[in-house]
Amino acid sequence: DSGVTQTPKHLITATGQRVTLRCSPRSGDLSVYWYQQSLDQGLQFLIQYYNGEERAKGNILERFSAQQFPDLHSELNLSSLELGDSALYFCASSAGLGDTGELFFGEGSRLTVL
Amino acid sequence: AQKVTQAQTEISVVEKEDVTLDCVYETRDTTYYLFWYKQPPSGELVFLIRRNSFDEQNEISGRYSWNFQKSTSSFNFTITASQVVDSAVYFCALTLNYGGSQGNLIFGKGTKLSVKP
């Protein structure tokens, strides 16, 4: 158990819809990262937050947004969903700005868009 | 641009065999970190090792060992006397050391290892 909690574990929705994925980092971790794992693209970094502020952006679509709240949990919002958005979305956390390099990953939220 | 290549898509071995998973990386930066993560069938990503670009010393942890060679830009992972529980997808990853973005990992496509009894 990594200590990172993601909900929901599974989500099935239709094209055009909007969903929110939630992540609670390990206790004390200030950085939260979101990754997408799909068959086509593999594992891709989406976005990083540190103590409530956006720190780095990767290959995140404009239809996707995220935020980190004062209690340090994070949400990833996916809107106008397309079939290609079906993927496993991972949240990870680290103590600082990732300087140790060791990210602790949650079990992922599997999104299926029909 | 940075890139990680895991040329072996799938490997199948019989229990107790040794197996090496290859990882080749590309970066122009002189400071970087390399990682291996394991993704068992249950789906979570499990950290195995981190190596920085200034430390080419090989590492051994039980049945696992890692060979880092900057001259060939490789960071290979060997499992000795494989076991069925080693069956998983293994990912090699790279991150650069700048601006607090060390957690932005660039992953290879992964190697699926199947260990048969």
Explain this structure to me?
The complex is a heterodimer of chains A (114) and B (117). With 114 residues, chain A is mainly β. In chain A, 0% of the residues lie in helices and 53% in strands. Chain A has strands at residues 5-7, 10-13, 19-24, 31-38, 42-50, 53-57, 64-68, 74-78, 87-94, 104-105, 109-113. In chain A, the strands form two sheets. In chain A, strands 2, 4, 5, 6, 9, 10 and 11 form a seven-stranded mixed β-sheet that branches. A four-stranded antiparallel β-sheet of chain A has the order 1-3-8-7, with no helix packed on it. In chain A, a hairpin with a 3-residue loop joins β4 (31-38) and β5 (42-50). Chain A is globular, with a radius of gyration of 13 Å. The model of chain A has no long low-confidence stretch (mean pLDDT 92). Chain B has 117 residues and is mostly beta strands. In chain B, the strands form three sheets. In chain B, strands 2, 5, 6, 10, 11 and 12 form a six-stranded mixed β-sheet that branches. The model of chain B has no long low-confidence stretch (mean pLDDT 91). Chain B is built from no helices and twelve strands.
Q: What is the radius of gyration of chain A? A: 13 Å
Tally of helical runs of chain B: 0
pLDDT averaged over residues of chain A: 92
Largest sheet of chain A: 7 strands, mixed
Rough shape of chain A? Answer: globular
Order of helices and strands of chain B: EEEEEEEEEEEE
How many beta strands in the DSSP annotation of chain B? 12
Low-confidence stretches of chain A: none
- The average pLDDT score of chain B comes to 91
What fraction, in percent, of the residue positions of chain A are helical? under 10%
Q: How many β-strands of chain A, per DSSP?
A: 11
Biggest sheet record of chain B = 6 strands, mixed
Which geometry of chain B do the CA atoms define? globular
